[in-house]
What does this fold into?
Amino acid sequence: MITRLEQGGASFLVAEFQGFCKELHEEAATQLAAILAPHSRWGRQAVRLAAVTSRKLDQSNPSPGVLGHDFSMFDVSLWDALEDLHPKRKPEWHEALETLIWARNGINHDDADQLSKAAAAGWAVEPRTLERWRVALDELAKAMDHVVGDNLHANLGVRPW
It folds into this structure.
């Protein structure tokens, strides 16, 4: 039986990670706009809007596919770059993110199949798993920040942050 605290924990982790991803994407778009149109407020706004208009994070969970889609706007193959940076950690980050979203969807949509899917993958909703998810997402967030920043630097010649 999953407690309400565990249910809330899983939902909170997804929400916090999604917020981080949106902020990272927004910051990357803002930096891109500032570099491409430094002397035009209108130009900066146009570039920023072009970068965020088709952002799936605004409508969907931060799944690996959604993240890959959204950050491709900055000419980065996110998961390939993460694998290059941390080849041993990337598979666990990917799995942690997928299973957390399955668990969150199972909890929020009362879908036992999604919860079973996460549990069958070794990520049952329980206190130690919440900690595994938290650690994996913290590491993933730091790696994403590194990858996106390095990509902007390589393509624009300026360190964005």
Remarks:
- The chain has a mean pLDDT of 96.
- Helices lie at 4-36, 41-52, 64-71, 78-85, 90-108, 112-120, 127-156.
